[in-house]
Amino acid sequence: MTQAAANKVVLGLQWGDEGKGKVIDVLAARARYVVRCQGGANAGHTVVVEGRKTVLHLLPSGALHEGATCIIGNGVVVDPIALQEELAELGPAGVALAKRLLVSDRAHLVLPWHKALDRLSEQRKGDGKVGTTLRGIGPCYGDKIARIGLRCGELKAKDFRERLRRHADQAADVIRSYGAEPGDIDAMLAEVLPACEKLAGLVADTSDILHKAVLEDAAILFEGAQGVMLDIDYGTYPFVTSSNTGIGGVITGSGLPHNRVGEVIGIVKAYTTRVGAGPFPVELLDAKGEELRERGGEFGATTGRPRRCGWLDLVVVGFACRLNGVDTIALTKLDVLSGEAEIPVCVGYELDGERIDTVPADVMALENAKPIYEMLPGWTEDLSACRHFDELPATAQAYVRFIEERVGVRVGYIGTGAGREETIIR
Ligand code: GDP
Ligand code: IMO
Ligand code: MG
């Protein structure tokens, strides 16, 4: 048996945007491989190095570490155009990165008509829309499950153009059945084909590469996208994304078994945010919500949309930890809470006169759930210079310990700023 101890999984435990990109960047310094396992260009993972901000969408957030090979695993849905654009945006670093970037032959392709269908599906839902990122994620995973998708491994097939054309024609029929016009398919094909050709050069059997990496004891870092409350099974369905965002998605989306993925690190923002529609019990619709949004810079890294904000919800965090066997919590953005006299933390919900401590499956029930808060004392100090736990104000330490006690999981990392170095490792 080889050791999986050096391997680490990073998962978002709320509604996404917990700060996974930053934590991955910090941990990637010691990783040989950084692997995305699900989602696609809907993700927006921010990394700040020496004041310079980079936002990664499809590319793993290990991108800035030259020693790490970046893998886009089979569970990811890959938009060839978005991938080329993202590499181009990185400039010379993107050219260098393309040499240590591999894409699974089993990963599905997100094609222009998937994006058109995403938009159309949202329009048809009207007020009930999900508020997707319009990156074609749902329609692409839909094709995968319906067994009509195209995979990256097909890019090298001699008849790939014909396959692509057939796929486009099929999508055009679906678009017409919605009473809409599919647009200029030839123009779409002409746009996507050059990007497909470039992508073909990156395709490999990434699960086999990872199995060999395990035999060599090479450290692997798995990068979750989105968060547990956006999980297709356990999130606030139907206001979710179309993949398994938890540990299950890491296993099916990388090709490594459960006993090879190593330590599970759950990322928890010190308060809660959500983008898009759907229930959000702790949402603050008042000036305080606005204040958190401004102070935390809570605007989408992919779409620029303002994020909905609320206090920390430990019902959600506990639920996400139990579902995913979280070993360690990385608490991010603790610095943003500085200046609050008292900080409410949600420790349960009241639903129909009863107290519950888990997330109900029914979104209407969650919509009606009233958060039960405990008030914790705040602090006024700026935390950005703190590098050790004992440098934090006593009340900030107590906030961290409160989370550990209530959830039963150790907090091993604390974020005190967006920069790589603004991290306390306990
Ligand atoms: P991700 O999708 O989980 O990678 O998170 P995003 O990048 O979408 O959003 C997190 C935001 O918070 C980004 O702007 C990060 O630069 C920033 N961030 C991450 N950790 C911290 C932290 O500890 N403190 C502060 N102030 N900002 C942070
Ligand atoms: P990262 O990885 C926050 C949300 C969308 C929408 C729902 C479905 O940066 O944390 P989709 O385009 O996936 O079909 O949209 O999921 N969503 C995210 N919210 N962070 C993300 O990624 C998200 N990816 C998707 O806003 O509500
Ligand atoms: Mg994000």
What's the SSE blueprint?
Elements: E1 8-12, H1 20-28, E2 33-36, E3 45-49, E4 52-56, E5 69-72, E6 77-78, H2 80-89, H3 92-97, E7 101-104, E8 108-109, H4 112-125, H5 137-145, H6 160-177, H7 185-200, E9 203-204, H8 206-215, E10 220-223, H9 247-254, E11 263-269, E12 272-274, H10 287-296, E13 308-310, E14 312-313, H11 314-324, E15 328-332, E16 342-351, E17 354-356, H12 363-368, E18 370-377, H13 394-407, E19 410-415, E20 423-425
Parallel strand pairs: 1-10, 1-11, 2-5, 2-10, 5-7, 6-8, 7-9, 11-15, 14-16, 15-19
Antiparallel strand pairs: 3-4, 12-13, 16-17, 16-18, 19-20
The structure holds guanosine-5'-diphosphate (GDP), 6-O-phosphoryl inosine monophosphate and magnesium ion (MG).
Structure description:
The protein is of the alpha/beta class and 426 residues long. Helices cover 33% and strands 20% of the residues. The protein contains 13 helices and 20 strands. It has helices at 20-28, 80-89, 92-97, 112-125, 137-145, 160-177, 185-200, 206-215, 247-254, 287-296, 314-324, 363-368, 394-407; strands at residues 8-12, 33-36, 45-49, 52-56, 69-72, 77-78, 101-104, 108-109, 203-204, 220-223, 263-269, 272-274, 308-310, 312-313, 328-332, 342-351, 354-356, 370-377, 410-415, 423-425. The strands form five sheets. The protein has a ten-stranded mixed β-sheet, with helices on both faces. Helix 2 packs across helix 7 and helix 4 (112-125) packs parallel to helix 6 (160-177). The protein is globular, with a radius of gyration of 21 Å. The model has no long low-confidence stretch (mean pLDDT 96). The structure holds guanosine-5'-diphosphate, 6-O-phosphoryl inosine monophosphate (IMO) and magnesium ion (MG). The site of magnesium ion has 6 residues, from loops. Guanosine-5'-diphosphate (GDP) binds at residues 12, 16-22, 44-46, 48, 297, 301, 332-333, 335-336, 415-418.
